Automatic annotation (TrEMBL):
Transmembrane in keyword set: yes
Regions that span the bilayer: 51-72, 84-105, 111-128
UniProt-listed Gene3D superfamilies: 1.10.3730.20
Keyword DNA repair (UniProt): no
InterPro entries: EmrE-like, TMEM42
Protein name: Transmembrane protein 42
Length: 144
């Protein structure tokens, strides 16, 4: 059984992966450097491999974005509040982006970024701990 927070978290992960693939495809020569280090002395083949890797990454960007929107829509449908699904997706995207940026590109985050994501995660915990109101309670309040 799928849950709202699970679908929303996967949507955030796919969004971060899509952004990472776009950076690989359109950014600096990350893919060429990877190919040349793997090929050793055979740098001539990297021209074609580099082009193939860029085209593959661009195709994967579209695939990840399509899957991200699918999971986000499922998260919205399963959620009692659109805010919960949106904040879950955003937090998942931020954390995954930070992890992928560090691992793949050697990026680091400033202290203010960590403070912001900590506040976001605390808000997310509050949203997920709040139980949705019961339908019977709403009906009895309307009658009064």
């Amino acid at each position: 059984m799928r849950s709202s927070w699970g679908c929303s978290a996967v949507a955030g992960l796919l969004g971060a992966l899509s952004a990472c693939l776009a950076k690989l495809a359109l950014g600096a020569d990350y893919l060429r450097d990877i190919c040349e280090s793997a090929a050793g002395g055979a740098g001539g083949i990297c021209d074609w491999v580099h082009l193939l890797l860029r085209v593959s990454c661009i195709c994967l960007v579209f695939a990840c974005n399509g899957m991200m929107w699918t999971f986000f829509a499922k998260g919205l449908r399963l959620s009692s509040s659109s805010a919960t699904a949106t904040v879950t997706t955003t937090a998942s995207n931020f954390v995954t982006s930070a992890f992928l940026g560090k691992v793949l590109f050697g990026e680091s985050r400033a202290l203010l970024w960590w403070v912001g994501i900590s506040i976001t995660l605390c808000g997310l915990l509050l949203l997920h701990k709040e139980s949705p109101p019961l339908e019977g309670t709403r009906e009895s309040k309307k009658e009064n």
